[in-house]
């Protein structure tokens, strides 16, 4: 990889910035913070934004694209910036054009890679950048540049982790052929149905990410081609990171060299690979989690342990659903067996589901690490609940002889309420103790 820089002003200064990078080791991501404002024209200013333009044999379009982008940023962007041209092993005059632009324009850098692949280019440049906000856009500038500041503003403010342009949002304005429109919508429908994707447009070449998120996320992304975008977004969403969407004005480039059939085939292979990895829990997504304290609802409560409010809400929701699930199972089992056996079977099945749901939704534990131990401890908690409910049923039977089904349910609900309080205390203090969710101050 070769690099040519022209950073004589505002967007200047090579070298790593240590203040905005997360620890690449264990622990969670630090709390998002608003990036400090600084003089955009200072010669030594580290760029806040690094916009990468991946290119392959773009000798015709590269210069007008970079000139237009640089002019737009110079006029409208209030922070120091950098434009990086990432050349994917071009065989035409693209390297010469890119090197000339880097020598001519302040804040333009040229990086040469000897292998093709948009994902490879973005991974290389983003990993080496010292800017706290990283972005990329296609060289044809199909997306209206007025969407660039709205794209990166939520990342600069600390509101979001990633941001994407969407051609499929309700208020987006798009000009393209029916064939590409159908393929785009079909692909995103596949993502929603197979990977439960919540974002609307995976392949729009207009995205941004905070650097500390990229540092943790990029090593998990295997693809180095066109599926790179999709894999990045799916993993980020599954990890619970916040993705901001910006409706864009977009005009299709009729001279696009993207091979639709080959790209679609590779994308479908990628969907299968990522879906399988997520299904078996092979990805350490817990490394991408934000701490519970990264929420104003938690910080606003004085004298309450950080995260407790959210945990209580999550536990109550999971508990209510688990109770309904348990009662349905008990009623079903009761059709064929006695009350004690029906109670034990219903509790066992609902306890496994309850532990799994609380692990993920209430206490924010992701990945397979410790899952077996957590379920074993959950079964101990289940045994305590079984003793309470079974004891209640035994006491009811001794007192009334042959209680009605409605009386049994009323007694079980009361016993389950008592068991629920004890269950939350045991889950919080023993199964998922506070040390598993470090304080934000400890991970900065």
Structural description of this entry:
The protein has 444 residues and is an alpha/beta fold. Helices cover 48% and strands 12% of the residues. It has 13 helices and ten strands. The protein has helices at residues 62-76, 94-104, 118-128, 148-156, 178-194, 211-217, 228-238, 260-279, 296-299, 308-333, 339-362, 371-400, 405-431, and strands at residues 2-6, 49-55, 81-88, 108-113, 133-137, 162-166, 173-175, 206-210, 243-247, 249-251. The strands form two sheets. Strands 1-4-3-2-5-8-6-9 form an eight-stranded mixed sheet, sandwiched between helices. The protein has a two-stranded parallel sheet with strand order 7-10. Helix 1 (62-76) links the parallel strand 2 and strand 3 (81-88). Helix 10 packs antiparallel against helix 11 (339-362) and helix 12 runs antiparallel to helix 13. The relative contact order is 0.10. The model is unreliable at 6-25, 297-305 and 435-444 (pLDDT under 50).
What topology emerges from the helices and strands here?
Blueprint: E1 2-6, E2 49-55, H1 62-76, E3 81-88, H2 94-104, E4 108-113, H3 118-128, E5 133-137, H4 148-156, E6 162-166, E7 173-175, H5 178-194, E8 206-210, H6 211-217, H7 228-238, E9 243-247, E10 249-251, H8 260-279, H9 296-299, H10 308-333, H11 339-362, H12 371-400, H13 405-431
Parallel strand pairs: 2-3, 2-5, 3-4, 6-9, 7-10
Antiparallel strand pairs: 1-4, 5-8, 6-8
């Amino acid at each position: 990889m070769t690099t040519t820089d022209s950073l004589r002003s505002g967007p200047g200064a090579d070298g790593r910035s240590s203040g905005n990078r997360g620890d690449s080791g264990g622990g969670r991501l630090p709390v998002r913070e608003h990036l400090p404002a600084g003089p955009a024209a200072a010669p030594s200013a580290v760029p806040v934004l690094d916009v990468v333009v991946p290119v392959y044999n773009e000798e015709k379009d590269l210069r007008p694209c970079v000139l237009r982008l640089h002019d737009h940023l110079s006029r409208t962007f209030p922070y120091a910036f950098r434009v990086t041209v990432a050349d994917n092993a071009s065989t035409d005059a693209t390297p010469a054009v890119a090197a000339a632009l880097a020598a001519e324009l302040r804040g333009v850098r040229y990086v040469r890679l000897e292998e093709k692949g948009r994902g490879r280019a973005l991974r290389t440049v983003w990993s080496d950048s010292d800017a706290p906000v990283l972005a990329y856009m296609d060289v044809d500038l199909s997306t209206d540049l007025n969407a660039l500041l709205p794209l990166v503003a939520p990342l600069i403010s600390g509101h979001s982790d990633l941001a994407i342009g969407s051609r499929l949002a309700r208020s987006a304005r798009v000009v393209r052929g029916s064939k590409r429109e159908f393929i785009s919508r079909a692909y995103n429908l596949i993502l929603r149905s197979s990977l439960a994707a919540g974002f609307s447009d995976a392949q729009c070449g207009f995205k941004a990410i905070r650097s500390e998120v990229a540092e943790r996320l990029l090593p998990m992304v295997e693809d180095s081609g066109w599926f790179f975008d999709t894999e990045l977004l799916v993993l980020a969403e599954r990890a619970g990171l916040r993705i901001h969407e910006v409706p864009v004005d977009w005009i299709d480039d009729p001279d696009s060299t993207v091979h639709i059939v080959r790209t679609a085939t590779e994308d479908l292979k990628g969907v299968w690979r990522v879906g399988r990895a997520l299904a078996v829990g092979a990805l350490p997504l817990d490394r991408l989690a934000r701490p519970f304290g990264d929420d104003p609802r938690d910080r606003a409560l004085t004298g309450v342990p950080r995260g407790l409010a959210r945990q209580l809400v999550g536990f109550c929701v999971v508990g209510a659903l688990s109770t309904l699930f348990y009662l349905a199972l008990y009623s079903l089992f009761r059709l064929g067996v006695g009350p004690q056996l029906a109670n034990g079977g219903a509790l066992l099945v609902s306890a496994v589901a309850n532990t799994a749901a609380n692990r993920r939704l209430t206490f924010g534990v992701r990945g397979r690490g410790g899952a077996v131990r957590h379920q074993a401890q959950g079964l101990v908690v289940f045994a305590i609940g079984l003793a309470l409910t079974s004891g209640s049923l035994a006491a009811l039977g001794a007192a009334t002889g042959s209680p009605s089904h409605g009386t049994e349910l009323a007694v079980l609900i009361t016993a389950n309420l008592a068991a629920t309080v004890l269950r939350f205390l045991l889950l919080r203090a023993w199964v998922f103790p506070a040390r598993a969710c470090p304080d934000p101050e400890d991970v900065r």
